[in-house]
Structure formats: structure tokens, C-alpha cells
Design a protein that fits this description.
The complex is a heterodimer. Chain A has helices at 2-29, 42-51, 58-70, 86-92, 95-123, 128-140, 145-159, 173-203, 206-214, 218-255, 261-271, 274-302. By secondary structure, chain A is an all-alpha fold. Chain A is globular and about 85 Å long. In chain A, 36% of the residues are buried. By secondary structure, chain B is of the alpha+beta class. Chain B has two domains: 105-203, no CATH class; 222-454, MetI-like (MetI-like fold). Chain B has helices at residues 15-22, 34-40, 49-58, 61-78, 80-83, 105-113, 222-258, 260-275, 278-300, 305-313, 315-327, 330-344, 347-354, 359-395, 407-416, 423-450; strands spanning 119-122, 136-142, 145-151, 158-162, 170-174, 178-179, 182-183, 187-188, 200-203. Chain B has a four-stranded antiparallel β-sheet with strand order 1-4-5-8, covered by helices on one side. A three-stranded mixed β-sheet of chain B has the order 3-2-9, with no helix packed on it. The longest helix of chain B is centred in the middle third of the chain and has 37 residues, at 222-258. Classes of the chains: A mainly alpha, B alpha+beta. At the A-B interface, α1, α7, α8, α10 and α11 of A face α9, α14, α15 and α16 of B.
Amino acid sequence: MGSYILKRIVGSIFILLLIMVVTFLLMNAIPGSPFLTEKSTPEQIAMAEAKYGLDKPLHIQLWNYIKSYLKGDLGTSLKMQEGTPVKDIIFRQGKFILSIKLGIYSLLLAILVGIPLGCLAAYFRGSWLDGCLRVITTVGVAIPGFVLAALLLIAFSVKIPIFPTKSGNLPNFKSYVLPVISLSSYYTCYIAKLMRTSMLDAINQDYIRTARAKGVKTRSIILKHALRNSLIPVITYLGPVTAGIITGSFVVESTFSVPGLGKYFVQCVLSRDYPIIMATTVVLSALVIIMMLVVDIVYKIVDPRITLTAKED
Amino acid sequence: MKTPFAKLSPFQVDPEKIMDTFGINDGDFEKASDNEKESMVETHKSISYWKDAWRRFRSNTVSMVALFVFLCCLFFAFVGPYLIPYNYSDQYRTAQKLGPFEYSPGEEIAHSIEKSVDGLYSTSMRPGSITALPAGDYAITAGKKTYAFTLDKPIDNCMIVLDLDEAEPLRIVNEADVRDGAYTNYTPIAFTDTPAEGAAQLKFSKRIFPHVFGTDSAGRDIMARTMYGARVSIIIGVIAALIVLIIGSLYGAISGLCGGAVDFVMMRIVELIYSIPEVLVVLLLQVVLKEPLQMWFQAHSETSAFVRAMSDLGAGIVSIFITFAVLYWVTMARIIRGQVLMLKKQEYVTAATALGASNSRIIRKHLLPNCIGPLVITTCLQIPSAIFLESFLSFLGLGVSAPMASLGSLCSDALQTIQLYPYRLVFPAIILTIIVLTLNLVGDGLRDALDPRLKK
């Protein structure tokens, strides 16, 4: 187990490095200079580039990035907030925290609602409840997040003003409701669907029949025997969910005017603020990669049959 | 031939007796004739894989309904634009910010007298920033007859009306003169049959059609735009799915067939791409590719038809395709590789190898037919995910650019005025949801039909 985790961590660092290289190359593939405006003269551009080391050869620039990242220094902003350290922008100004808060609550909601719904649907399979849930989940995975966000916005902040139209810095509980629901709805529905299938699979296994024959209560059959075995596909899915929720936050943040990292990232890409693009990509990628690692380890705890060292399939 | 049973031990039964008891004749041991053989062959036709799948698919009510609704969406997107008189990019000066099923004032008037005349051309329904019809030579066709006439001065807020029952069939009617579905005053136009050199062609309106989904702030008909956007979205989805199909299946098949070190390296690459949070890269790619693509279009669109087709689609869409080609094929590759690996170990493949079948025969006869199910299913489910991604990018302002529209960009445009005109969002959003929903359901149905083993 220990050696496996170590191997995975090394692999993850390698992937992060690779993502840095790819991001760096992509950033530099955008034609022109970030300092190019209608008014700027070539001398001014050259001066600005020299100031931030953009005139150096590419491999040296890349090496500088990697060196400073190893020291924990994420560089300084070029344009969005000129001269401010990127670390401050991402972590101190609360952007990262906002996005993370939205993300974590959405993830929790998706898990805490999706799993019970899936269990219910499986347990009452064939009933009206199952039918309703199936319709809801099928429609739920077909509505794009931004559409749901916008519809919720019309319904519950414009027509019936219960929730604020602008969630801003998420000061109170009310401001969380709509963003979190629209961010998590797709994943809630998907997890419920997944859970229903795998729960049905588990319920039809022999050991469930044995437990029933022994006279174990239905509740503890579901909670102890079936649930544990049917959680595995859901846990596998949590890695992609994290990536998806981070992505979804781009849209939700702009719909509900939350000044989070996602919205900021899009602005930075458009205005070509290299250090912020790099830092955001690395931080968000790291988050996804760590989540995938955690998922694999939880996997092992839930299902001891899985041998982590063996290759998949 | 009665001797072979001559010596029988006491425990043996005499075959003669048995034959007598059961009424078997010697003739029953004759070789069967060709006729008899034929009558033994099963008479019902064998059902092919596709027929069988179609039978299973048909019995699945939900999928059939979904397929029907999806076909309706296709009709809406591809035939619809020919049925309504509005164009996705035409801006009608007088028809801005209309609600669903509303007419602009000019259209309202034209609509009121539409039934009593044989042809109608309204200057307020001219697309563009000028509503007036400038002075000049014009030709207008109704049926087989062409009416050519000259306007001495520009006309504004007027209609050119054709009324075949009257002595002066072609007339100019001022909108102010229309009361309760009839016009009180008109100016006749003198016309000839042969249009003058360089005469501008006009067209009588087909039917005055309400703006069913309303219009946007620039006076564009939202239904026309939604139809066009649905078409763009569906095309993007299909092409992206095909790209994924080609790259993913080839990659997966090669990896699975070769095995060993090749497989190991290829699968590490897949894992790597899999763990990259793709949307971050997609966003970067979108920005990166835009300018080089536009330059490439300009440089080569003269010489190559392919590039011209690409440049018609626009840099935004082409970079979506490139993104799919670079990042999104990994799931397909994994599925196909798994399938190939599983099939390779099957007994019938071993048997075929033992019988001396060549590699290409095994691939053609055994691997490919068995992979078709997963290929079709994954491709079908890839379409909605491509539509999702495209709408997501358009929503962030990176996908298609105006005046082109996709369902995502329509939603994103609508969001800016959502407080005042919520219906602008609702219609494209519903169409988008229906397309994705029905494709998902059809994909699920296909999975049940093509691969019954997977059915839970």
C-alpha cells in the first residue's frame, strides 16, 4: 500500500510537470505579445517583456517557472493586477476559497443526495417512486449546467425573489443555494443512476439471499451488505466529478456573479496573463489529480479485493 | 443383406424383430435424395445481427419515442429553416425585441390584409438597417408572370400589393391607409413584362409569419436562429463523434492487438491524457488556435475546397474539432482496447488461428463484427457530450462567433437580458435539452439492443 501510494504520488508529480510544459507551450503559441495594445510601441513591449523575463529563450523561461514553483513561488501577475504576487491573487483574495467552497458543497450535495436517491430507486424498483426518480435523473443529466443555473435564476430570484440574483462573495446560506444546486444537479442525477444500477446488481447477489435467509433485517441488509458493495462504481466516478465540478464552476460563477477562480481563469486566458494562467492550471490540475489519488485509495479501503499494484483490466 | 445378424448370442435381441416391432423397413436405410435433404433444412430465414437489434430496439418504447422526438428535432433543424420566411442572420429594423408569437407593427398590418390580396411586399419587413425601398428599377415575380416597374422616389412604410381581380393589379399601399384588414387608398404602379437591365429582384412574402420565439435586440428572429443553432450544434456533435470514433477505435485496436510493450506505452499515454483536467486545456487551445487557424484559412482557402469548408465553419468550431481529436478519444480507445483484449482470448479466435486463419481474416470476421456494438453505442453517446462541450464553450464566448449561432451561444446571448426577456433563453435551452436527452435515451436503447449482455 505504502509503495503504491508513493508510486502514484511520483506519477502525479510527473503529470503535473507535463501539464506545466503543455500549458507553457500553449500559452506561448498564442501569436503576439501579451503587452501588445493599440498604443504600445515596439520599445515599450520589449521593455515590458524584458521586465518579466519574456524575452529569454523558451526553455529558460520554462526552467524558471519550474524552479520558482519548486520554491513555492507562483510569480507575479502581468496584466490583470500588475505586480501582485499570483499566490496572493489566488489564495489571499479569496478566489480559490470561494471556488473550493462551492465545489465542496456541490460534491457533498451530489453524494449525500445522489446515493440515497439511487438506493431508494433500487429498493422500490418498479414502483412509482422509481419511475419518478428515473424521469428526474434522466432529464437531470441532459440539462446543461448553465441552462439550469439560468432557469433557477429566473425562477427563484427574478420571478419569486427568494434568493439573491448575485451571490457575490457567498456571505450567507441563501447565496449558496442556487449556485450549489445548479453545479451539482448533473452529478447528483448521474450518481443516483449509477447507484441504482449497482445497487440492483448487488441486491440480486447470492450473499444477499443468504443474509435474508438468516433473518437479517432488511434495513441492515441494505446498509451493511448491499450498500458497501454497490458503492464502488460511485467512488470510481468521484474523480471525474471533481474535474467536472471545477469546470462547471466556470459557468456557474459567471451566471451568479461569484468572483471565483473559474471566472477569473477565463478572463486571464483572454487577457493572456501568463503567470496566473499557469498557476491556476497547476493548482486546479493538482486538485483533480489529488482527488483521483484519494479515490483510488478509498477504493481499496471499501473493497479489499482490489489489488492496487496490479494493472487494471 | 440378411446375413450379418446370423450369429446372435442369447442375450442379443434380433434386429429383425426390432425392425418388425417398430415398423421399420429396409428402405429407411437408403441414402436420402437431394429433395429429401432440402426438406430437412430449417425453413425460417436466419435473422441477421442488425435485424435482431432493430427488433429489440423497436420493442423498447422509451427509445422509440426518443428516436421519434430526435427525428422531429432533426426536421426542425434541417427542414425548418426552409419553411419560415426569416433568416438566421437577417436583422429586421422594425422587429426588435418582440415577444413570442408577436408581429412587428408593419407585419401586423401586412398580416391583416394578407388574405385579401394575391401577393404582398412590405418595406417594413426588409432586412437590414434601412427599411425604405430606394428609387430604381425593380422586378417582382408572382407565379409565372414577372412585373417590372420603376420607382421614381423611395417608398417607406409602404406595401407593394398584387390584386389580380382589380383593373390595376399592382399598387403601392401606404401602411397608414390600412383599416380593419382592408386598404382605403392606393397608388397604382405602371408595369411591363420585361425587366430593365440591372433591375433589382424583389420577392412577394410567402406568408406573413409571426416571430414564434420572438426576436432579439438586433431584430433577428429567434426561431430561425434556434433552428440554425440546432443545426450547427448537431453537426458539431456528429463530426466530433466521428473524429473520436476514428482516432479512438484505431488507437484502441492497435493497442489491444499489438499487446506487450506497445500496449503498455500506448496505455500510459491514455492514462496521462485522462488525468489532465481537459477543460483547462480546451480553453487554452481555443484561444491559441483561433488566430493561426484564421491565417491558415486565408492562405489556403483559394486552393483547397477542404480549407474553404473549414473556414465557412469558422475558427471556433474547427478548434473544437481539434480539441476532440487531441483530448476526447481516450474513453473510446479504452473501451475498444478492452473489447479487443477480451475477444483475443476467446476460444473461437484461438480455433480460427489454429485452423490457419490469417490475422486480417480474424480481424475482419471475428474482431470487427464483435466490436461494432460498443463502437456504435459509444459514438452515439459521444454526440450529446460534444454538444454539451460546444455549448459550454460558446457560453463562455469561445465557440462560434456572431452572426453564426449555436444553441450554446444563443443561451449565452439570452443570459445578458434574462431579467427582461426570459423566453429568449427558454426556447434554445429547451431544444438543447431535448436533443441531448433524446440522444442519451437513443444511446441507451442502442446499448440494450446491440449488446444485450450489458442489459441490467
